[in-house]
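Model it.
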Amino acid sequence: MGAVDRRSGRDPEFEAFVAGAAGRLLHVAVLLTAEPLSGAPAGAYGGESSGTPAATAAPAARRILAGALARTYAHWERLRGDDPYDHTRQELCAAYARTARRLPPGTGVLARLAPLERLVLVMRVYEGVAEEVTAAQLGLTPERVEAICNRAVATMRAPAPGAAA
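Modeled.
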């Protein structure tokens, strides 16, 4: 493994990681921000060409994902042997937690949930992160994570307010 010229901004391993993980990480960010991907075709999360609906949809989700990827890139050399996806997801969740109150209310699928409920539900159900790991990353007890997750699931199972009965 040769030296990487950081000035060129190119690290083939990081680029390969982003190419493989960006779509799923963007989906996590979209779920967290509750932004709809209106007009984006199914599977278009990774479409980065300007002007396409997928490239212009979900600006807050794209912004926190870009920040998480930038922080992952800054620590890329220290991540050797660790899971970069896990690190990036942690950065993404931390960025969302820091900015959730400043984000506009979403209209996406998880918009009915409070920010913490959304975060716990995405980590536990969508990402499959263990309860203890989720608790440690969020600074909560495992029992609290379980209670929040159960409440979020119950909220999502209940009919939406104003929905036809």
